[in-house]
Amino acid sequence: MNRPLVSVVLPVFDGEAFLREALDSVFAQDYHPFEVIVVNDGSRDRSGEIARSYSGVRYHEQENRGASAARNLGVSVAEGEYVAFVDADDVVPPHKLSLQGDYLFEHPAVACVLGRQHWMQEPPGLVRDVVWGDLDGIPLVSMVVRRAVLLGIGEFDEEQGGDMDLLVRLRECGHEIVVLPDVVLDRRYHGKNLVAGRGLTPLPPASLKAKLDRERVRRARENA
Predict the structure, then answer these.
(1) Who's near 215: CB < 8 A, 6+ residues apart?
(2) pLDDT computed for residue 208 by the predictor
(3) With contact defined as beta carbons under 8 Å apart, do 11 and 113 qualify?
(4) Within the chain, which residues score under 70 in pLDDT?
(5) 3-state SS record for the chain
């Protein structure tokens, strides 16, 4: 099988405690070819030094602007046909890219593939998904998506909404999204996570307003 290149985008901010483990899990993938892009989001610790110690890492850095901005930078420099995202404090199993990348290859009508997650430490206060029964449901950061689709719908919202807003826009544009029954992400809860959980939860108010505004514009154009 002549597999497409997958670009793995990994944003990091002060993530020296777990970054090496995250990178080791990415480089242990049984899928080839893939590239690894680390975007240092203004870290004040040794994150940049750790990332640069890996010969296979394409390293970029920016002033601290948040994970969505770091992901946008990673996507802008990516060379792969598919893009995957990994957080610096998480770990991915070696079959992640094979499962999701091969699914996209075999199903050209599908734009984005999500998967299930396993929590290494159970966070307090999370509820179980009604479909899968998993804590916090399906993680949006588990996505592997076609880069052309990403470029077509626009960047991650850097103000609010982030990955959930992106998923909503994918659906609005009619792109097919598939959830695989396999665990493709080991999530780490350590008490300092930027977001303890990012499953399929309601949009924050700002992103919901943006969605409604887009719908109003679309309807106005249809009725013009």
Answers:
(1) 172
(2) 42
(3) no
(4) 160-162, 190-224
(5) CCCCCEEEEEEECCCCCCHHHHHHHHHCCCCCCEEEEEEEECCCCCHHHHHHCCCCEEEEEECCCCHHHHHHHHHHHCCCCEEEECCCCCECCCCHHHHHHHHHHHCCCEEEEEEEEEECCCCCCCCECCCCCCECCCCHHHCEEEHHHHHHHCCCECCCCHHHHHHHHHHHCCCEEEEEEEEEEEECCCCCCCCCCCCCCCCCHHHHHHHHHHHHHHHHHHHC
Q: What is the pLDDT of residues 169-182, one digit of tens each?
A: 999 999 999 999 99
pLDDT at 200 (0 to 100): 41
Q: Give the pLDDT confidence score for residue 86 in this predicted structure.
A: 97
- For the entire predicted model, the pTM comes to 0.84
Q: Hey, what are 56's tokens?
A: 């296979």
Residue listed under structure tokens 């602007």: 65
Domains of the chain: 6-223 (3.90.550.10)
